[in-house]
Design brief:
globular; single chain; alpha+beta; 32% strand; two-stranded antiparallel ribbon; nine-stranded antiparallel β-sheet
């Protein structure tokens, strides 16, 4: 009888400890996701907040899908240049690119940020370098551009806008960025984070924001 009672107690205790460890593990995974989202959103917001559309400056955003996953990309000039090399110039403009690739093992999306010194004459040729990994574990990256009338679109090209109408606003009213993270485990629902960067007015040709 004593052995049976002891076995029951051990079984109950094991079940309780196992449940506790699962809760701790899930909480830690969720915290990691929240930290990733916070760092990524802050970086993108700071870059866009310092967006430069003066002479030769531009903003280009393109919708993209990898498989059936939204994987939008964005490229623009900004004053938010991060110096990671002691030989680089400490100040100045930068061409910043956000690109996506799929992890071959997990099939999750990975977001890369490339930051290079801005050249007045930029080509539309894609850069072979993808930059530094900013965020992983993503299910979706969606970027929406809103006009001041509330109309939304999934692409933007300030160069084309300037060609067609030099007086037209080269910036949207706001840019909304949405990141969908894979859940902490296979049974968990994906977690979405959304932020937006608002631009107070238009940026005429040849002027800085």
């Amino acid at each position: 009888m004593a052995i049976s009672i002891f076995a029951i107690v051990v079984s109950l205790a094991y079940g309780s400890y196992r449940a506790t460890f699962l809760i701790i593990d899930t909480t830690e995974s969720q915290t990691e996701i929240y930290n990733k989202a916070s760092i990524t959103m802050n970086r993108i917001s700071n870059d866009l907040g310092s967006l430069y559309l003066g002479t030769s400056g531009f903003l280009q955003g393109k919708p993209q899908k990898i498989g059936n996953k939204e994987a939008d990309t964005m490229r623009f000039t900004s004053t938010a240049h991060l110096v990671l090399n002691k030989n680089e110039q400490a100040a100045g403009y930068a061409t910043i690119s956000y690109t996506i690739e799929e992890d071959s093992e997990t099939k999750a999306l990975r977001l890369f940020r490339q930051d290079k010194a801005f050249r007045p004459i930029e080509t539309d040729e894609p850069d072979v370098k993808k930059g530094l990994l900013l965020c992983d574990g993503l299910e979706e990256v969606q970027i929406i551009y809103y006009l001041n009338q509330g109309e939304q679109q999934d692409n933007w090209d300030s160069k084309e806008i300037e060609k067609s109408d030099s007086n037209a606003p080269r910036l949207p009213d706001r840019i909304e960025i949405s990141l969908l993270f894979m859940g902490p485990d296979e049974e968990a629902q994906p977690i979405r984070f959304t932020t937006a960067v608002t631009f107070p007015g238009t940026v005429p040709r040849g002027e800085t924001p």
